[in-house]
Amino acid sequence: MTASETDDRLSAQFAFLNEADRLKSVLRATTLVDGSRRENSGEHSWHLALYAMTLADQADPAVKIDRVIRMLLLHDLVEIDVGDVPIHSKGGTAHGSTDTQEAEAKAADRIFGLLPPDLAAEFRALWDEFEAAETPDALFAKSLDRVQPVMANLMSGGGTWVEYEVTSEQLDQRVGSKIAKGAPRLWDWVRAKTRAWFEP
Fold this sequence. Notes:
It is a single chain. By secondary structure, the protein is mostly helical. The protein has a single domain (about 5-200), classed as Hypothetical protein af1432 (Orthogonal Bundle). The protein has helices spanning about 5-20, 40-55, 65-75, 80, 100-110, 115-130, 135-155, 160-165, 170-180, 185-200, and strands at about 25-30, 40. The longest helix has 20 residues, at about 135-155. The termini are far apart.
């Protein structure tokens, strides 16, 4: 690689890294566990990577935790452009809506497109795999992405469940079904905790 090629590659890598710093400014609906403030998406991504390391024993034996961690570090970068779309939100830009999915795909094109082509393809493939939630790695990553806000809500006195008037049944449908696909034993444990909160 020539000096000019090295310079171009490093410029692209740092352009991506500097852009990724903006994720720290994206506030999520979920609060910190102490309820003192809303977490930002950079904190969420870091916490999920730690969740993957700590809860690796809850994963299917086929799961590669290093890939899960990489997915979790990348999965919310699109929020730089789209913002946080809470899972219990409603309306045209609701979580999982066609509008939201299209906006996130456009953001992924832009953000990963800042990278050198080899890294852009690699990172985008991991993001796409996470979004599709079909492989064992992606299913476990999705499960953790759903578990972390549940635990924050439990620790903060209900958090977004109170704000969005979430019912126990809605939690099962929107969150529990995803967790159970990738970490069924973990959902059994977490569900017992949520039942105690919703049905004291």
